[in-house]
Here is the input.
Amino acid sequence: MRLRGRPKKYRIVKVDPKINQFSPRGRPGRPDEVELKMDEFEALRLADYRGLSQKEAAKSMHISQQTFSRILNKARQLIAKGITTGSAIKIQGGNYVISSRIDPIQNPEIKPKTEDLVLKNLPK
Here is the structure.
């Protein structure tokens, strides 16, 4: 069976998270999980941690500003849900490319080369 619709583009992610899961303390038993995809993590890192504008952050991830805004809003909703319900927040999955050497904000004339990119396509 063929997939329908437009195929998803790989998102450019600059940094792998140091920790891939946050769990609440003081909650007995196994908490529910909220899954934060790598592109959502990167959107939070660029916008909220580094303080980039949505336009700059979108350029860094090689996506449109509208797509970046949608990813960022979803990430913020998932984080809020995890915090308010006491769920574990797991960072994994999604279609992304890790590229630590290329930053189109600092070097807009440089295009990524194949050897600069590490493709990641992790299952949910």
Strands lie at 11-13, 21-22, 33-36, 88-91, 94-98, 118-122. Residues 109-117 have pLDDT under 50 and may be disordered. DSSP finds three helices and six strands in the chain. The helical segments are 38-49, 54-61, 65-85.
